[in-house]
UniProtKB/TrEMBL annotation:
Residues 3-72 form a coiled coil. InterPro entries: CHP02449. Keywords: Coiled coil. The lineage of its organism: Bacteria, Pseudomonadati, Pseudomonadota, Gammaproteobacteria, Lysobacterales. It comes from Xanthomonas arboricola pv. guizotiae. This is TIGR02449 family protein.
Amino acid sequence: MDNAAALAQIRALAARVEALVERSQRLSDENRSLRHQQEQLIGERAQLLTKNEQARSRVEAMIVRLKSLEQHT
C-alpha cells in the first residue's frame, strides 16, 4: 500500500469518525428532548388523574344527594 492510498483510508476513516460524532450528538440532543417531553407528559398525566378523581368524587356526592332527596319525597 502506497502513501496516497493510506492517506485516503485515513481521511475516509476520519470522515466516518466525524459523522459518528455528529450522529452521537444529534441522538444525545434528541434523547434530552424526549426525556424532557416525557417529564412533561408524566406531570400532565398526574394532573389529569387528580382532576378525574375530583370529578368522580363530585359525581358520587351528587348521586348520594339525589338518593337522599329521592328518599325524602
